[in-house]
Each structure stands twice: as structure tokens, then as C-alpha cells.
Amino acid sequence: MFSIFKQEARGLATSPASSSTQDLGTNGGEGLDSNSSEKTDKEPVNVYGLGDPAAKFSQMSPYLSSRGSIIKCFRDAAEEGYKAYHLDEYDEDKNPKGIINFGTSENKLCFDLLSSRLNQRDMHHIEPPMLQYPNWKGHMWLRDEVAQFLSYYCKAPVPLKPENVVVVNGCASLFSALATVLCDPGEAFLISSPYYGAITQHVYLYGNVRLVYAHLDSRVTGMDSRPFQLTVKKLEIALLGAKSEGINVKGLVLINPQNPLGDIYSQEQLQEYLEFAKRHELHVIVDEVYMLSVFDESAMFQSVLGMDSLPDPQRTHVIWGTSKDFGISGFRFGTLYTENQDVANAVASLGCLHGICGTVQYQMAQLLRDRDWINQVYLSENHARLRAAHAYITEELETLNIPFLRTKAGFFIWIDLRKYLCTDTFEEEFSLWHRFLDHKVLLSCGKAFECKEPGWFRLVFSDKIPRLRLGIQRIREVLEKEPQVAKTACPASPWRRAVS
Amino acid sequence: MFSIFKQEARGLATSPASSSTQDLGTNGGEGLDSNSSEKTDKEPVNVYGLGDPAAKFSQMSPYLSSRGSIIKCFRDAAEEGYKAYHLDEYDEDKNPKGIINFGTSENKLCFDLLSSRLNQRDMHHIEPPMLQYPNWKGHMWLRDEVAQFLSYYCKAPVPLKPENVVVVNGCASLFSALATVLCDPGEAFLISSPYYGAITQHVYLYGNVRLVYAHLDSRVTGMDSRPFQLTVKKLEIALLGAKSEGINVKGLVLINPQNPLGDIYSQEQLQEYLEFAKRHELHVIVDEVYMLSVFDESAMFQSVLGMDSLPDPQRTHVIWGTSKDFGISGFRFGTLYTENQDVANAVASLGCLHGICGTVQYQMAQLLRDRDWINQVYLSENHARLRAAHAYITEELETLNIPFLRTKAGFFIWIDLRKYLCTDTFEEEFSLWHRFLDHKVLLSCGKAFECKEPGWFRLVFSDKIPRLRLGIQRIREVLEKEPQVAKTACPASPWRRAVS
Prior knowledge:
Two copies of one chain form a homodimer. Chain A is α/β, with parallel strands linked by helices. Chain A has a domain at about 125-370: Type I PLP-dependent aspartate aminotransferase-like (Major domain) (Aspartate Aminotransferase, domain 2). Chain A is about 40% helix and about 10% strand. Chain A is built from 17 helices and 13 strands. In chain A, helix 15 runs parallel beside helix 17 (about 465-480).
């Protein structure tokens, strides 16, 4: 059933040009030992995968439905690192030996700016309509502001329309709603891996939608110009693979800037991905939740909403929210922009389950309309702080001789700790992750992003320098005890997830 | 497959004692014409039904999944009355000919009290944890307050525990989450009808869970002491009926005080319902969202959380929220109390899709802890206003000779307009509903609550007297044109829903 695809995939994975890793941060491939390079020749990485979230869980509750038991296990499994963290959070004064969190992708650099803005008097306004049931697409005055905000920051060629906007309590809810209204149970979205792993549960928990992975890897072949490069060829292969297994793929998920890689897609790349989707009648969900977190002034971000024309506008749906770009993930605010009114109305039908407090809708409208504060106070200061934190952490990584992907956007760095694994397995990756946790520093391991190569980690750097310094020190202490290169057998650990 | 049940159901429905309607408000059966009494003998009302939300919809979108098309249709269908209302809302000054809303169950009498309280300085507090990802069960300090609040107002025999509390963005989300974690797709909850019709979509949209109806009706038989009385016998028959059709019923939904009937269950009744559920290993979801809206001082409300012991505590799950009792449905705040940690954790796993803004969590904690304001300012004033509005509307109904169920709780009255239907059909009921709407007064018709007898309507009275006066005047004008009793054929209208 899968033979044709397997041959094609294997052919690509073992091509002679696929054996080196290049351009890993400023220290490029220097940090990569030859052993790991050889290994990629011997053990080709699969270029396609199919997620099966339920397969990981088997513990049934006598009180829950079958799906309820699986849903509960998602929480149990995902929470291990965070349970430990929340029981023992680092605090400079109260708990200096507590856990440093390099795992959660939050911007902790700008609470002062946001608290100050959200405490201004214009935010404290209440009218009866805010206390009553809203339109489940969001209050019209808020959708007006969102449309104007996105028109401006996405550089839309013509003003975006408020009737194409739906606001709900966070981007997770948008993934859940879109999965449910675009796919029937068991159908799938295509996504390149590594990717922000929480999407797995957002589309699966309610929607029972799976993800088909186009696996990217660190090897640079003749067709790629950098590690983990997303190409249409890889998407084509994964789609073909899914079809050969009878999986109905209904859409493509693009994350731009990408999480965890930090890649920013060029206009040409975006055009190619969107045209690929159009050829196969795939919806495209474009997650631009880091679009204002491009901190390097040399980088150019291209929003899908800023393109002169879209190949398939009725199947193009753009997600944005305030969690990352305004550092307020606790506010639960996400926006969908789609010209497709069937999609907008179907998502709005689920909106009664994803509603936002009316006064918060008012505050978000006030925030988004305050172009002066955003441009002159917030973004410039936020980007400067992100740049400083990024510069600090990359210098430290270079000192530690840890390879990484150089990024210009987002809150994280994708680091290569493969040389510290005893064997190239996810059990070993988990074991290393656990040693970091035991040494009071929480990271996210590559498996949590469905990375196909064991040994990659995501390190979140958007935090104050003293905390970064302490976290890096603890990482160093763990790694100094690790047997580099020596790939001897180590005791295996049960694999678990750690991502947020 | 269904023959045994059908005989039993029919036997009950046609019993000699089942032909009269009594105790309908202060004017009792006076408003009932003899023709409609006779009819119940001739056309027995089914005592059991099975909801099939998808059957009502057939319009497929080329862009949506099968379920997505159905989900979208829910919005299209439910919105007719509300679309008209929102395009033409009554305003004393700006739009005096606009639509008066007697349809949405909101308390519009206390915006002044709530706005004033929510604007106090203690509400405007921000700390970094409120801006960050929360625990998806809700912040611990909020769950502490909820546990203390429920312990006090539900008169819990021992203090309720914060670890048994989950908070999400509204009670709709709790129905969705509970349906999903307690039932697999196609399974069902048992509920007595008429019931708050939105529950249909809350359990179906994501959960694909159906409702089995134990139909109550206005006839008072030997076993009943009042119209629409819920008895264990009726629940038993409906459960048997569902089983005979191969439907797997996983839980019972109780609404107390009941919406739309306004019934308040006694401790003895509650005990009977809970023991029935235990006998059949059914979960019980108890919706107490109107528990503090018991405005008649002669009434006693018994919370399930205030019972000395529960027959099956691991399968008893209580829902409450601020939408009704504090008149802030726009705040989206609902709480679940369950001793079952599997259920609490499974619901919390879905909590990432139902999150509440951190600052709103803080405001809700401040509100719930302010026992002085709640007891000495809010509740006494709120109840006085509800009593006055209720007294006004019931006097008007009596003057109009419209029978109704007398209630002591909630925001609505269940009124009997059967004598104004040309024929006893839901098409006729819809037609009357539409004539009200055309005459600028929005009501909810019985079909929206899955009432089995055509001709009942829910009238929401929790509004200012001038609006009530104008709405009642418009109702009178419509009814004066109606041919009472004369059951001649009228042109049929396509049936649609109108509920909120």
C-alpha cells in the first residue's frame, strides 16, 4: 500500500548530497562532530510521518469516554516539565534555586510596558453591551480595529475588511475551530516538522484531526540552501505519502516566522507554498503569531495578507494574536482573517465556546488602535530588548560550542545537542532533557516538535539577562558531565513530551 | 426494535387521567379553552424523543467538512430572530420603533450595580502571572475564591475544595467539555424537555453528543401535582426508550432552577433524580446557573452541593457561572465543581481552548470574595427589581388572559398561547413567533426548547418596566388580531429556531 512512496522517500533521504550540516549559527558546522555527519548517511531520516496522538496513551478511566481518557492523558503527559516548574519556579529572592524556564515561549521582557499601558485610564471603560452576550465573531468595533491593525502591519495592498475578521480566546481555539470545520474526524492537515507541538493537541482534542509531517532535517542537500529548509518538493512527498495511506489531507499549516526554527519565509517561498496548496485544493492556515517579533532590523517579514494577490483567497486563512507580539499570552486573544464567509461563519458558530470577555475586547481594541504607543514606545523597546537577549544567549552558546540556527525573529533558538547523546534515540534525548530539568533548567526537546533527528532542543531567550545567565550556567554544568561523541549504550528512559 | 417501548410510552400518554391542564399561574386553567384539553386525548404527546441536530440541516459548503457545514447551519438557523434584533434594536431615544427583546435570557436590571462594582479601584490590578499562560484549570487564587463562594451560597455541609474547581470561559464551554470527555461521538445525555435549547448545540458542535428527551407536558395526571412536572418515571421511560434504540446514554442533565419552566426542585426531588442516575450509572450534570436568581423570598433553593451526602459523588458535576446571577453574560465565566479528578483533569485538558483572560480571573475573584457587597447591596436590590418586573408582567398576562406557569426564580415566564394557534403544529407556532417579530417583539417559541406541545413561549421579563410595557402592548396587538380557538387551516411556514 505504501511501497511507491517509501521508495521515493528513501531515494531522497539517502541521496549522496545529503550528508552534511551547514550554516548552523555563526559557528556553522564547526560544532558538529564527524560521527553525527556520517550517521545521517547510514540511517536515513524519514521525510514523511503521520501523527497518531492516541497511540501514545493507553490509560483508560472508568468514568471517561474513550476520547475523554485520551484527552486527559494529553494533560498528564504534557505537564511533566511544567508541573515540576510550577512547583519550584525560580525567583531571584524567594527561590534562587528554583527552576529556570527556557521552555515556555513567552516574552518576559515587556511586562512593565504592557502593565503600564493596560493600566491607563482609557482601558477602564464599561458599557452594558460589554456585559451582555456578544456577537460570537467579536464586537464589531473590535473587528474594525483588528482589520485596520492588520491592514497597517501586514501592509495590505487594499484595506482589510472587518467582516472577514473573527476574534476568539486565543490562537489555540482558532486551530481547534478550523480543524473541526475544515476536516471530518480522522482527516489531516499537512505541516512541516519541527513545528510548535501544541498544534497537535489543538487540532486533535476536539477535532480528532491528525497532522501529516513533512519532516525537515539538518542535512543540506543539493536542493536546499540551509538546514531544515522547507521546500515544495518535501511538501509534495509528504502529501503523496499521506494519500498512499488513504489519509485525506484537507489543508496545509504554515507558521511564519516559524516556531521553533525562527525561519522567516520570503515572498517567493510563500508564493510557492500557496501555489502548491492551490494545485492540491488544500486550505492554507497561516499562523503569523510572531509577525511583530522580528527583532533584527535587517530582516523583512512578508505577511500573506500583504501579498498583491493570493493564489486561492477562499482557501487562505490567517491567524494572529496578542500572546506573542504583545507578550500577553494570559489575555487569550486570537484573530482569524479569511475572505471565505462559510469558514468565518462556521468558526463563529463555535465562537460561543471560545468567547472573550466584553471588557477585554474593549481593551484589545484600545491597544490595537494606539498606533503611537505601539510604534514609538512598544515595538522599538521590545525589539531592542529581544536583540540584547538574543545577542547574549548566542554569545554564550558560541562559547559553549553549541551549534544553533541563527534567527532574526521569535523568542527561541533551535540548538543542536546531538553530540551529547549516548545514542541517537529519543529516549536519550528525553534523558538529557530530564537531566537539565533535574539540574533546574527547563528546555523543550525536539521530540516535542516532532523533529525527526534526536538531539535538538528549543531554548527560549526572551527573559531578563540574570535569568539567562543562570540558566546557561546550569546547562553548562549538565553538559560538562556529558560524554561527548562517545556513543555508548545508556539506560533508556520512557519518552515523554515537554512543550508549550 | 422499538415496539416494547412504544407501547409503554403510548400507554402512559393516553391514560385516562392525562387530559387536563391545571395550576397554570394564578389564573390556573381558566385561560385554557376546552378544545385544547380535548385534543390531548385525541393526539397523545410522545413522552420520549431523540435529538438529531444534523437532520435539520442539508446545505453543504464546498469549502467545509461535513460537520463544518452542519456547524455553520447552526449559526444560520439560530440567528434569524437575533439578526433581525441586532439590526433593529429598540432604543428609547434613538430607535423607539425597534425590536423589544423578550427572547434573550439576560438580566438587564442591574447594569448600574455591576458597572459600578467592576469600576472600583480594586478591580484594576495587573501582575505578570495574569499576563502569562495560566493553569488551564484557572488561577489557584480564583479557584480558592470559587470554592469558598460555592461553600457559602450552596450551604455546603463541609467546605468545598479548590482542587475540585475548574474555571473556563462560560457554562457553554463546560457543557461542550463534559459532553466530550464523558461521551464518545453519537452517545447521549438524558434531559427533560422543555429545556434551555442552546445545550443542544453546546454538546453537539464539537462533541457530537445528542440529547435524549424526557418530554414533559402540561397535562396533570394522577402521578403529577403540576404541569410539566419532572418525575423519575418519565426519566425511566425515556432512558428505556433510548436503550431500545441502541442509544448509549451516559449522563443526565438537570437544570435547577429550571430554564424555561422556572421550577425549583425540592431536596426530595433532587434525591430521587440523583438516585435514579446512580441506579443506571449515569453521570449527572447539574446546571445551577440561576441559583442566586431566586427572587421570591418564600422559595427555598437546594443546591446539590448543599446536600448532606450525594448518592454518587464521583459522577456528580455541578455547573455555575456569573452570566445569570450577576447579569454579566458578556464576561464569559463558568465554573465546574466535581470531586472526580479524572473528569476535572480531562476538562482542564480542553481548558487551553476555553481560557479566560488573567485580569478577568482577578476581577472575578474580587467580585466573588466581596460578600458584603453581594449580600447587602447586590442580591437584595437585584431580587427586589426582579420581583417588581415579575409582578408587573404577570399582572399584564392576567389582564390579557394568557395562562402561564407561576415561577419564583429566573428571568422568564413560560406562557401558554396554544389558543392562538390555527392548528396545533410547530409551523403554526413559528408563524405566531414570526408575527410577534414582525410586530417588533422577539420571544422564544417552545420548539426552541424542544417542547412537545406547540403553542408555548418563553417571555423574558428581567428588563426595565417601560420596555416591558411596550413589549406587552405589542404582544397584545398581535394577539388581538389572532383567531382564538378557531382551528382553521393556516398557510404553513418553514420551521426555524429562536433561542438564546
